[in-house]
Amino acid sequence: MTGHAGGDPVVVGIGDGLLRPRVLDRATAEARRGGGAVTLVHAHGPETPPAPWSEDAGQRAEAYLTRTAPDLEVSLVCRAGDAVALLVGSCGAGSILVLGDRHRRLASAAGHVTERAVTAAPCPVLVVPEYRGPTPPGTVVRRAVVAGVDDGPSAPAVLAHALRAAAGLGVPVEAVRVVPPPSGAETAEVPDAELVRARHELDAVVTAARRHGPEVPVSTEVVADRPARALLERAAGADELVIGHRRDGAATAREPGSTARSVLTAAPCAVAVLGPHGRAGSPRRAAVGESAP
Q1: Where residue 72 falls among pLDDT bands split at 50, 70, 90?
Q2: What value does the mean pLDDT take over residues 194-213?
Q3: 23: domain range?
Q4: Of 224, 226, 219, 223, the residue nearest 263 (C-alpha)
Q5: How many whole angstroms separate alpha carbon 71 and alpha carbon 260?
């Protein structure tokens, strides 16, 4: 059974503790759209020999997928070591790395794993919220993938990934370009000429992406606001938010930039982040019309 582009699987980070069906179900949907292979990665502590519980979480996740997704090829990597090194080492350029976000505490150990994985992974990192709070009053719940398309080098890859994700989900893309005001200024102080320029740049990126991507309806919006706030507002009620992070120096980038970090901390939906190594991943195949959990 084949995996993603180039035979690369969906890779899922497995933590200790409770079974994480929301994360595993999302990984299952991604694998079915991409070719059918899942690699579960469970990195545990440095005990030698391992404590009796060390492999339990990985084995329970493997058993869950064997029972709920017998059509998938599932493998388990369970060993002591650095979690990020094991996760990244299991990914290829055509993979997608799926991580759970249990409490949105990026200051926790799990949060540091997410930050480091975003920077180091050779593929997009999909962070799936395990528990969803109440929907804010007035939120319009709709089927859509929101793409944060900025003026940086990640913009084409972000939009291309959003198009593929939307094709797989059978939903449209909402491409958003956020123009931040000068530091300390109000959003009303963004010049109209800057908004017009941003509109032209967004339209150009969308036109180029649609030329090579799947046929997916795309709407566009240019807004003057703080990037994290604008993206979080538009992600409310959507299926997924796709963003890049702006730190390009692989030798010095230790964590996502402030916008990506703020979004990951408070996002109301799954967030796919393309870090500096995850932008050039091989295109992942998408079957139009399939839905994800």
Answers
A1: very high
A2: 94
A3: 5-129
A4: 226
A5: 35
Query: Are both 163 and 99 inside the same structural domain?
Result: no
- CATH code for the domain in which residue 45 is found: 3.40.50.12370
CA 165, CA 237: separation in Å to the nearest integer?
16
Is there a single domain that holds both residue 13 and residue 103? yes
User: Which pLDDT band, with edges at 50, 70 and 90, does 235 fall under?
Assistant: very high
Angle at 12 between CA 74 and CA 123, to 5 degrees: 110
Residues 125 and 198 in one domain: no
Cα 84 from Cα 108, distance rounded (Å) = 14
Q: What's the per-residue H, E or C state across the chain?
A: CCCEHHHECEEEECCCCCCCHHHHHHHHHHHHHHCCEEEEEEEECCCCCCCCCCCHHHHHHHHHHHHHCCCCEEEEEEEECCHHHHHHHCCCCCCEEEEEECCCCCCCHHHHHHHHHHHHCCCCEEEEECCCCCCCCCCCCCCCEEEECCCCCCHHHHHHHHHHHHHHHCCCEEEEEEECCCCCCCHHHCCHHHHHHHHHHHHHHHHHHHHHCCCCCEEEEEEECCHHHHHHHHHCCCCEEEEECCCCCCCCCCCCCHHHHHHHHHCCCEEEEECCCCCCCCCCCCCCCCCCC
What's the rounded Cα separation, in Å, for the pair 9 and 283?
Answer: 13
Separation between Cα atoms, residue 6 and residue 24, nearest integer Å: 22
User: Which residue type is seen at 162?
Assistant: A
Query: pTM of the prediction?
Result: 0.84
Q: Are residues 186 and 212 in the same domain?
A: yes
Amino acid at 243: I
CA distance 100 to 106: 12
Is 97 in the same domain as 161? Answer: no
Domain assignment present for 192: yes
